[in-house]
Specification:
- This protein is α+β, with helices and mostly antiparallel strands.
- It has one domain.
- It is built from two helices and two strands; from the N terminus they run E-H-H-E.
- The protein has a two-stranded antiparallel sheet with strand order 1-2.
- Helix 1 (about 10-25) packs antiparallel against helix 2.
- The radius of gyration is 14 Å and the shape is globular.
- It starts with a strand and ends with a strand.
């Protein structure tokens, strides 16, 4: 695996927010337990963090090696 750094653009921000929303939607299909609630709250905090980051902020992206 390799880590590259990409600038946070509006398109990348939308892709990240969409993936977080997908994870939250999947968790909402579960029975609400403290573990599920904790994960949803964590994703909400992560969304807030990405909303606050400025455009151009370098975001580490992990890519699998294509050997």
């Amino acid at each position: 695996m390799a880590t590259i750094y990409k600038p946070l653009t509006p398109r990348l921000r939308d892709e990240i927010q969409t993936s977080i929303n997908d994870a939250i939607c999947e968790l909402q299909t579960c029975n609400i337990t403290p573990w599920v609630t904790m994960q949803i709250n964590s994703y909400n905090a992560l969304q807030y963090l990405f909303d606050c980051l400025p455009d151009g902020f370098l975001v580490p992206i992990t890519q699998e090696d294509r050997s």
